[in-house]
# Entry
Amino acid sequence: WGPQMVDIAIKAVKKIILKRGEYTEVDIKRYIRIEKIPGGDLNDCIVLDGVMFNKDVTHSKMRRRIVNPRVLLLDCPLEYKKGESQTNVEIMNEEDFNSLLRQEEEYIENMCASIVAFKPDIVITEKGVSDLAQHYFLKAGITAFRRIRKTDNNRIARATGATVVNRPDEIQESDIGTGCGLFEVRKIGDEYFSFLEECTDAKACTILLRGGSKDVLNEIERNLQDAMQVVRNVVFDPRMLPGGGATEMAISVAILKSMDEVEGISKWSYAAIGNALEVIPRTLAQNCGASVIRLLTDLRTKHTLPNFGGSTWGVNGTTGEIADMKNLSIWEPYCVKTQTLKTAIESACMILRIDDVVSGTRKKKAEGQNA
# Structure
């Protein structure tokens, strides 16, 4: 299932790329959700042209399939607002109690009327929806969802083109999302899932993973997260370098070659860095059970060919032989390689500084004892 997961990762990351002038935004954590549902086959794993969430409609008679729905997203409760402070009400007769109930009903009715005026097909809120509000929505033919997570609401907003509104009286026509082509509630296993699919320009998506067990799905999710991060790096910087230790060996050979031009004690630092970079191909050779000394000698010979003729040769981790990474299509992002080298240099500098401090304190102690 490796190639299939790679295709899913590329497709998902491509969907959420958003360009704002010279700035490119690829927010995997916020706008790609991986939904794991045990059961089914690995071939059923797909990237939706939209989003899905684990919710059913609030009322059983509400519509469960709508073509080209108008979606309204809210961040407020559709129920009577309870007082923040404790209030005592003295009721003298039965009519006073009825007037209090009527006030609550009128408040909810006015709230629902302001929503129904914009003729949405789906209303999704992050807070609660009262029974009376459900009744008014059902009469108007509106499907309602309640207690949606904030992250899911943001994804729905990106997928459908809607805007999350904080108060019903602030709704505008531009806040209604019309980018969704199909809404449907489906039962998968024992749970109901709501799908907003066939979105015209969805900048958020859901990856639906199916598999035999939760352990299998968790393993697939970890690999998929790594694959998406690699695709994200390539989107920001499309430059690639050969893998299999070819890049490290090429840098090592170049540094050792330039060592001859340096005089004095400085040349030994070149030698140390050149030998240190060979640790990557050496480790690859050890992991695949090859003859390390012979393989590294052959690889070093390849990299000393004129005009950088063997600079793309590295270690084939499957066969334990040297091979041209260009033919095997093994590439690594340029930004990852550069960051690895920067981190290694900074770590070495930090260790040397600590060593200087420790050796300095020991020297002072020794001088104090001698005195």
